[in-house]
Design a protein that fits this description.
The complex is a heterotrimer. Helix content of chain A is 18%, strand content 33%. Chain A is of the alpha+beta class. Among the domains of chain A are: 137 residues, Probable tRNA modification gtpase trme, domain 1 (Gyrase A, domain 2, 2-Layer Sandwich), CATH 3.30.1360; 91 residues, Aminomethyltransferase beta-barrel domains (Elongation Factor Tu (Ef-tu), domain 3, Beta Barrel), CATH 2.40.30.110. In chain A, a hairpin with a 5-residue loop joins strand 5 and strand 6. Chain A is globular, with a radius of gyration of 21 Å. The termini of chain A are far apart. A 5-stranded parallel β-sheet of chain B has the order 11-2-1-15-21, with helices on one face. In chain B, strands 18-19-16-20 form a 4-stranded antiparallel β-sheet. In chain B, strands 7-6-17 form a 3-stranded mixed β-sheet. Chain B has a domain of 196 residues: 3-Layer(bba) Sandwich (FAD/NAD(P)-binding domain), CATH 3.50.50. Helix content of chain B is 36%, strand content 17%. Chain C is α/β, with parallel strands linked by helices. Helices cover 36% and strands 17% of the residues of chain C. Chain C has 18 helices and 20 strands. An 8-stranded mixed β-sheet of chain C has the order 6-5-4-16-17-18-15-19, with helices on both faces. In chain C, strand 11 and strand 12 form a beta hairpin. The radius of gyration of chain C is 22 Å and the shape is globular. Classes of the chains: A alpha+beta, B alpha/beta, C alpha/beta.
Chain lengths: 394, 537, 503
């Protein structure tokens, strides 16, 4: 960070870069949070298939990570987020969001309770000013530790078996729990979490152990179809799982230019996270008001006729009245359906008359289609193995 | 008999003239200098070196005007520049980079918090730009008028402002009234980061960064763009004169005529109407209307018979504030100065360079101005356009433009002397030398411009580069004078089209365009050849 | 211990005004004062009255409770070091004599009338709950329209002039019209008194108009001096409030406001004592109320952070001297208000160093010598002065205080030779001393700077300018709220009105 010549490499390598670069045959790199990350290593379909059929590793390092530590850590987090943090046990993980005063979403992320007084918050966007401001008046320190941690996501039906082969006994590890084992000269933290909606784990260690970890896993997974995947494959998996991504499915409030784009947890279908009884948290007053009158927006899963992904499509009622917008869409190879996530006007959630306007550019001409869309339950796909404890053997 | 005579071939006069000529009006421009361009000029003041000796960078020039008047086809090229740097007294620096990640990592070298605060800050500035940009190309309403046009403009304005949430509206009002120092305190903690961001809030302004209202001035410098990249700045290839040269070519192509070398003595008025101009050499030019690109004080106090003007108008014009606050050094260099703080080969030298590393230092420089002195530790905005533009100097040689604040219109109440000017130049050069040892030895030639020179040569009263200070009492419906923000004057057919009018100074062209639009409106001429303001959709 | 339905925190003029009005409306009100004596800034800091709200004076019947005016149009002498002073008599320098350019007499009459007119047009804004900038059915649209109409009825030229000077600076406004340095200095001093602005600061005119909208005994712009000084005014307010049934407890410092489930339930004192009430009215600075008494746990981060960042820089210090004999300010009438502000430049120069936390070499000041009017029993003389500008957060507080005191005494000596030898006791309270003593953040007299971006519906902060807070049952009623400071009682009265309208 203090290198004066940082501008010569505007995108940082992650601690796994030596391995990902060697494995990335397409050279399809993209910027994620200031890091070079792979969009596709080799073949999108094979990479997605690995998530659902065997196992995949995904370099999670660019995920922004904050360490929150101190006697007031719980009080601080309970005021920061709408979820009840006091109820989060040590060794557990919580999916969470946080909002500004108006209840507008700033980000979502996962909160790890490492000890009674130490937490890790992982998220998509950078929030140091907001977190530090929130820390005023609390006996707590907030430190950005993105560069101090190397993280790898191991996801797929054979992921548990690979960990067993790697010498880790994960049989007792339940979803949203974590454990720690010695690894090399240091420690490896394993949480049963992920962004694929499948059986899977996230592995956390220090950057110096990144390459040994990668090699160790690859060796352990050699007979179990383990392969590195890029963010394109992950995106299909997360859509199948119905997970949202900040910046794609909603615009974080602190960088949102247009006020009509702001969304609250209620608009995004995340009202279930809010503990209305726990007391004050930032945005509570505004969200109470919104709850009383009902949100303007809903966030829904859609099944759309045909097989052309509806990414960015405008939604209509009765084919003419604008009703919302598709924020993410794909043809789901797992479900053999055309699925989408969308922001939809709340009063139209039950409408039987929804349509997606899809433009498909084919050989220099647009095929314009008005395809019927149906609101369906999310997640689109959630296999039983995801939560089975202990996971099955392969 | 001309349809219109325009006094002054500055960029706004040229823009207005271009639009009028393109609408079919027989138009002539009269310019006192042998060259055209006003304060947007490229001049060879040292053999082989082209100087942008007044204005020196471009961002504000409205792209709508570039398109309408076909300026690129007439040779205008804007070169976006790379980065910039603020050098700190401890030998370090804070760089600016075009790349978002580099920029973030650079700020993080100074403060991690500030690096992450930058995104929200940039959003908030852009939010205000979005609101203000459409106003640049409109005629401000007269608050006291019940004319349907004024009322509809007022209504439009009201809708722009109230079409936002209470929180956003309050933020906007606070932003427009705060000092940049206070505003930046709400986002950043690092002094250098704040000092760099404050640069745009004082340039050209007789205010310090702690003066309320300077946050708006920042916006004035951030609302431009280079090819849609809002807030970006660039060089005009071949110097700032390329802008006015392209305008002149466009004007001539539309049938316009330019007479340079003889200035206007007086606006000819008969029966309460402007009927043309009398030149300094006694020649007269008859025209159905006169547009003045000179600042309002020069126009009405120097070139219009007082008897033709209402007393209270004259009083207001006399009180129109035009105190100059800046000076300039234009330097021919034998090579690239070596700024010790910057890593060898860093791109930052291809942009704006500064040597005041705290807001306090900038404010103290302003305190000197208030006392009628040039700043002992001045704020400088230094550029070397030849790092990018190969057309201005021989290879390996460079042109350096140093914009300096603060320089008062007078030194402790007395006119500038040559000794004052030389002392001023020495102060500035010494400052640069401290950050680039050996700089002095590279100097081949220096042109020093204090407010005195700016007034004498370009005709900017008291050397104010905006043709009138940009404070709220002189902005929008108050610019130049309440009741006359419509580009008209008490004399029928005498119009004002320079930066003294809304939306003010900078090489923007909007005042000239707006004035031409009003002229054509009065003539009930179609204005299809004038683009509406591009919105930030 | 009887129970109260309303607790008012702080027995300054605003707390007392609010308490009185609420008690008259039938509430049982307890006022808690941290200090040993009530009165707040009215008793401890201010030495003049310029904006006592007539609604408060009448509503509390202060005359019946002992308020007598020594004068309701205190004259001013702007001191010149050479003894050629400028006298400003009547209301707001109605009559000028002494060192004044003859042309200025007419010019000032015109400017004075205009300023008073503008201030009068805007005055109704003081007496209302600020409108919300968003469409709100409670907005006083009719009142606002009336203000607009009245402004327009001044005529097109005056209306435009108001639109021009609204956000301009005092320096240019004076420079446009006047020539006499003493007159300009005196006006520049008055215009910026108590604010963290110099005369050259843009936006300095509006706070001046606020000041000029104040009145004494029905005369707009007049300076009043109560018999017995400002503590007497505070005492009358205390008496009135007590007579209305308000219970006042001194030496009762509130440690925190108790909040349960977003609702204020009472207060806890530093002694540990808890007092429950349905409604809490804080007449302490909003910044202090939100940050210290409520605390971050009960507030959204955005609001709390804004409170933290709210500007509250005090720029005025108070000097109190005990003198063995009456000083001679080169012949100036010692019963006048005496100003040392030789020119507008001097005022600006005194502001310069404060921006960097430094002490000015030549401070400007407003001086009163009450003992010149009413001799003290001990035969000694008392001089009080409001001195501008003083840094609120210098690097070394002790050194800054000493330097400031030295600068003040030097400045006084320049204008009243021999005064130094007469000083038997000197007490200078810097903004940080005032903060320590009164709890006013930054020692700012307005309980939060009175600057355009912190006025009207932006005062104290956007979203809480209507005296109501996001904590149900907690109200703000200090000078930190619309319209601002001075010993006016206006914010307190407005807050009480807002509470009544809430039922």
């Amino acid at each position: 960070m203090n290198d004066l010549r940082h501008y010569e490499t505007p995108l940082l390598p992650t601690p796994f870069h030596a391995r990902t670069e060697a494995a990335c045959k397409t050279h399809a790199w993209a910027n994620w949070g200031g890091y070079r990350t792979v969009t596709t290593f080799e073949d999108l379909a094979m990479e997605h298939s690995a998530i659902r059929n065997t196992a995949s590793v995904y370099d999670l390092c660019p995920m922004i990570k904050y360490r929150i530590e101190g006697p007031d850590a719980v009080a601080f987090l309970d005021r920061l987020t709408p979820r009840n943090v006091a109820k989060l046990r040590v060794g557990s993980v919580q999916y969470t969001v946080w909002c500004d005063d108006a209840g507008h979403l700033l980000d979502d992320g996962t909160l790890f309770r490492l000890t009674e007084t130490r937490f890790r918050l992982c998220c998509q966007e950078r929030h140091l000013p907001w977190l530090l401001d929130s820390a005023h008046g609390f006996d707590v320190t907030v430190t950005e530790e993105t560069e101090e941690i190397a993280a790898l996501s191991l996801q797929g039906p054979t992921s548990a078996e690979i960990l067993r082969r790697a010498g880790v006994d994960i049989d007792a590890l339940k979803p949203f729990r974590m454990m720690e084992v010695p690894f090399g000269m240091g420690r490896l933290m394993i949480s049963r979490t992920g962004f694929t909606g499948d059986l899977g784990y996230e592995l956390w260690t220090t950057p110096d152990l990144a390459l040994p970890l990668w090699d160790h896993l690859m060796q352990a997974g050699a007979l179990h179809g383990l392969r590195p995947i890029g963010s394109d494959a992950l995106n299909i998996a997360r859509l199948e799982a119905g997970f949202i991504i900040t910046g794609y499915d909603f615009i974080p409030a602190h960088v949102c230019l247009r006020e009509d784009r702001l969304r609250t947890p209620l608009d995004m279908g995340l009202g279930w996270l809010i503990d209305w009884e726990k007391g004050a948290f930032t945005g509570r007053n505004a969200l109470m008001k919104q709850r009383a009158k009902g949100p303007d927006w809903a966030f829904v899963g859609l099944e759309i006729d045909g097989n052309i992904p509806a990414d960015g499509a405008i939604l209509y009622r009765a084919q003419k009245h604008e009703a919302g917008v598709v924020t993410g869409a794909c043809w789901s190879p797992t479900l053999k359906r055309n699925i989408a996530l969308a922001q939809l006007r709340a009063d139209l959630v039950k409408s039987p008359d929804l349509w997606a306007e899809i433009y498909a550019l084919r050989e220099l001409h647009y095929a314009k289609m008005m395809m019927r869309a149906r609101v369906v339950d999310r997640p689109f796909y959630t296999p039983a193995r995801r939560t089975l404890t202990p996971p099955a053997r392969f | 008999m001309y349809d219109a005579v325009v006094i002054g071939a500055g960029h706004n006069g040229l823009v207005a003239a271009c639009y009028l000529a393109r609408a079919g009006l027989k138009t002539v421009i009269v310019e006192k200098n042998d060259w055209i361009g006003g304060a947007a000029v490229s001049r060879e003041l040292y053999p082989g070196f082209t100087y942008s000796n007044c204005s020196y960078v471009s961002s504000l020039f409205r792209p709508e005007i570039m398109r309408d008047l076909d300026l690129p086809r007439h040779g205008l090229q804007i070169l976006p520049y790379e980065g910039g740097a603020l050098m700190t007294r401890d030998g370090g620096y804070l760089g600016m980079f075009r790349d978002h990640e580099s920029n973030r990592r650079e700020i993080a070298r100074h403060s991690r918090r500030d690096a992450e605060a930058y995104d929200r800050y940039a959003r908030d500035i852009l939010r205000n730009c979005r609101l203000i940009r459409p106003m640049l190309m409109r005629r401000p309403p007269d608050l006291a008028s019940f004319h349907p046009r004024d009322l509809s403009e007022l209504l439009w304005l009201g809708r722009q402002i109230t079409g936002q949430s209470e929180a956003a509206l309050c933020d906007m009002l606070r932003f427009w009234t705060m000092s940049i120092a206070d505003f930046l305190d709400e986002y950043f903690e690092n002094p250098a980061v704040k000092a760099y961001q404050a640069v745009g809030s004082i340039i050209g302004t007789a205010l310090g960064p702690m003066s309320p209202g300077t946050a708006y001035v920042l916006l004035h410098h951030a609302m431009g763009d280079v090819d849609g990249n809002v807030g970006a700045w660039g060089y005009a290839r071949g110097g700032m004169g390329s802008i006015t040269r392209a305008l002149a070519d466009s004007f001539r192509a539309a049938g316009g005529e330019i007479r340079a070398g003889v200035g206007v003595q007086e606006v000819r008025i008969s029966g309460g109407r402007a009927t043309g101009v009398v030149l300094a050499n006694g020649d007269e030019i008859s025209a159905r209307r006169v547009l003045s690109n000179m600042d309002v004080r020069r126009t009405f106090l120097g070139h219009v018979d007082r008897k033709e003007l209402p007393a209270d108008f004259v009083k207001r014009v006399e009180r129109f504030k035009t105190r100059g606050s800046s000076g300039k050094l234009n330097i021919a260099l034998d090579g690239v100065p070596r700024f010790t703080a910057l890593p060898e080969g860093a791109p930052n030298i291809k942009g704006d360079l500064h040597f005041t590393d705290t807001i306090d230092q900038m404010e103290r420089a302003y305190d000197d101005w208030k006392a009628g002195r040039f700043s002992r530790h001045p704020f400088q905005d230094v550029m070397i356009p030849t790092m990018i533009d190969p057309t201005m100097t021989p290879p390996g040689k460079h042109f350096m433009s140093c914009f300096v604040q603060y320089a008062p219109p007078q030194i402790e109440g007395k006119p500038w002397t040559d000794a004052d000017r030389d002392a001023f130049a020495k102060t500035c050069i010494d400052q640069i030398e401290a950050y680039a040892p050996g700089f002095r030895d590279l100097i081949l030639h220096v042109e020093v411009r204090t407010p005195r020179e700016l007034e004498a040569e370009v005709g900017l009263t008291e050397g104010n580069i905006f043709q009138g200070e940009l404070t709220f009492d002189q902005m929008f419906f108050n610019r130049p004078v309440p009741g006359y923000a419509n580009y008209r004057s008490p004399v029928k057919d005498l119009w004002i089209c320079g930066s003294s009018t809304h939306p003010g100074g900078g090489v923007m062209g909007a005042p000239g365009r707006n004035a031409a639009r009003e002229v054509l409106r009065d003539l009930r001429q179609p204005v299809d050849h004038m683009s509406d303001a591009y919105a930030i959709v | 211990m009887p129970s109260f339905d309303t607790i008012v925190i702080g027995a300054g003029p605003n707390g007392l005004a609010a308490a009185h009005r609420l008690a008259k409306g039938g509430a049982s009100v307890l006022v808690l004062e941290a200090g040993a004596v009530p009165g707040g800034g009215a008793a401890a800091l201010a030495h003049l009255s310029y904006n006592l709200d007539p609604r408060v004076a009448e509503g509390m019947d202060l005359a019946r409770h002992g308020l007598r005016w020594a004068t309701t149009a205190l004259p001013t002498t702007a001191l010149a070091a050479d003894g050629n002073h400028l006298r400003m008599e009547g209301v707001l320098g109605e009559r000028l004599s002494g060192a004044v350019d003859p042309a200025d007499i007419a010019a000032w009459a015109e400017l004075r009338a205009r300023l008073l007119r503008f201030a009068a047009v805007l005055a109704p804004l003081n007496a209302m709950t600020p409108p919300r900038p968003a469409a709100d059915p409670k907005n006083p649209l009719l009142k606002l329209a009336m203000i607009g109409l009245k402004a327009r009825m001044m005529g097109a030229a005056e209306f435009r002039e108001l639109g021009r000077i609204f956000l301009t600076n005092v320096f240019d406004l004076l420079d446009d019209e006047l020539r006499s340095p003493l007159l300009k200095g005196a006006l520049a001093f008055d215009a910026t008194l108590g604010s963290w602005l110099g005369p050259r600061s843009p936006n300095s005119v509006l706070p001046w108009l606020y000041r000029l909208s104040g009145q004494t005994e029905g005369r707009q712009g007049a300076l009043g001096l109560p018999e017995g000084g400002m503590p007497a005014l505070a005492a009358a307010m205390v008496k009135a409030a007590t007579a209305a049934g308000v219970t006042l407890r001194c030496n009762a410092r509130v440690e925190r406001i108790d909040v349960a489930d977003g609702t204020a339930t009472g207060v806890t004192l530093t002694s540990g004592e808890q007092i429950a009430a349905r409604r809490i009215v804080s007449a302490l600075a909003p910044k202090t109320t939100l940050m210290s008494l409520v605390g971050p746990r009960h507030l959204d981060n955005g609001l709390y952070t804004r409170a933290r960042l709210q500007k509250a820089r005090g720029g005025a210090a108070r000097l109190d001297l005990t003198l063995s004999a009456l000083p001679d300010f080169r012949g100036a009438d010692p019963t006048h208000r005496l100003l040392i502000a030789p020119s507008e430049h001097h005022v600006e120069r005194a502001f310069n160093p404060v921006k960097y936390g430094e002490v000015p070499e030549e401070p400007v000041m407003e001086i009163l010598i009450p003992t010149a009017r009413t001799p003290a029993p001990d035969g000694l003389h008392r001089l009080s002065a409001i001195v501008q500008y003083a840094p609120h957060a210098p690097k070394d507080c002790t050194a800054a205080r000493a330097a400031m005191l030295a600068a003040c005494l030097l400045q006084l000596e320049r204008h009243a030779p021999g005064i130094g030898a007469k000083v038997t006791e000197a007490c200078l309270r810097m903004p940080y001393d005032i903060e320590a003593e009164t709890g006013l953040p930054g020692g700012n007299w307005h309980a939060g700077e009175l600057s355009v971006e912190q006025m009207l519906f932006l005062r104290p902060l956007p979203g809480i300018a209507q005296y109501r807070t996001p904590i149900a049952g907690l109200w703000l009623a200090s000078a930190g709220c619309n319209p601002g400071g001075g010993v006016s009682g206006t914010p307190g009265w407005n807050a009480a009105l807002a509470m009544e309208a809430d039922r």
